[in-house]
Amino acid sequence: MPRRTGNGIVLYLSPTQPAPAMVPFELQNYISPEIWEARIPSIARVTSRYSKPLFEGVWALLGFFFMTIVPVAIFKVVLVKNSGLRHSEARAISFGIFVTIALIFFLPVAIWKFMGRKEVNMMLMAWAETDRMTSGQHTAIPIWKVKFPGVSRDTIALTIVIPPNKSPSAFHPDAYLPSYINRPIDPDSYYYPYRGGSGLPHMSVVGDVYVDEKRGLHVARV
Length: 222
What we know:
The chain is α+β, with helices and mostly antiparallel strands. Among the domains are: 47-161; 187-220, no CATH class. Helix content is 45%, strand content 14%. The protein has helices spanning 33-48, 53-81, 87-135, 187-191, and strands at residues 3-4, 8-13, 143-147, 156-161, 203-206, 209-212, 217-220. The strands form two sheets. It has a four-stranded antiparallel sheet with strand order 1-2-4-3. It has a three-stranded antiparallel sheet with strand order 5-6-7, with no helix packed on it. A hairpin with a 3-residue loop joins strand 1 (3-4) and strand 2. Helix 2 (53-81) runs antiparallel to helix 3. The radius of gyration is 34 Å and the shape is elongated. The protein starts with a strand and ends with a strand. 7% of the residues are buried.
């Protein structure tokens, strides 16, 4: 289900879950059903290529294990094998090994995630350019933002920001509206609610002002 924010909505997508089939009513003035059906699966498909929760979880655990065990073991071995070596020098060697292991395990994952974000951002930029060409350069368009899932999670956060110069209606399109909203104008019943008798002028009511049609006088209601 979409979550409403102050200036848009947030949807949580997952490659293992079906995408929302209908456009949220706040966005129906900006996004057609055809565009929605094409773009939402594309976001999930591209993002899922750079999100492998099981692999990432196991890889992170291995990285923390080696970063914790290997530097401590080497620190002790260095001190035993080199009795003349100072503790500060042994700690420096151990810290260097810690940094090396961290880079080996986490740098490739960071580069992989960066490539995924870059591909998704390029796709969103292409969509924005298409929307501008379709709607016109001076027409505000919704802004699409994608937040990548974290380690060992596959949930994608999609935020769609509604243009600030065109707020969505406060009413659902299928909601019941009172009769006084968009009521059809009936000249007989609306402009002439009071029919005068024989020889009396008709009085029209517009807001709080009465109009004497024969004399042309405007009299404010008291």
